[in-house]
Amino acid sequence: MNIDQAAKALKELGHPTRLAVYRQLIKSGRKGIAVGEVQEKLEIPGSTLSHHLKSLESAGLITQRREGRTLFCVAQYEQLDSVIGFLQEECCADEAN
CA dist 29 to 4, 62, 77, 92, 94, Å? Predict the structure, then answer.
């Protein structure tokens, strides 16, 4: 992961509503959760939720899949791990021994 990718992911997670949505997707596990269910749980208007989901998807933090008429969102745990790893990879590198 490079600094631009990390900055984009952190920027998208820096919005309170997007962070709440992302946390809900993380809780739902690897199978994902229906968009309608996220909307109900977080009491977010559909158009607002759609906007936030697009932002998270553009940062590679989620993917979406359609099953019939239902749209599911899935957190991309590997991308989250990459962001966390990027932040931690040089931890204490300049610290004197």
Answer: 27, 12, 9, 32, 37
Q: How far apart are CA 15 and CA 34, in angstroms?
A: 21
- pTM of the entire predicted model: 0.91
Amino acid type, 92: C
Q: The tokens of 74 are what? A: 């899935």
Q: According to the model, what pLDDT value does residue 93 have?
A: 87
Residue keyed to tokens 């920027």: 11
Q: What is the mean pLDDT of each run of 10 residues along the chain (97 residues)?
A: 96 97 97 97 96 97 97 97 94 82
Diameter over CA atoms, the chain: 59
Which residues, 6+ apart, have CB-to-CB distance to 42 below 8 Å? 17, 20, 21, 24, 49
Of how many residues is the chain composed?
A: 97
Tokens (6 digits) for 3: 């600094």
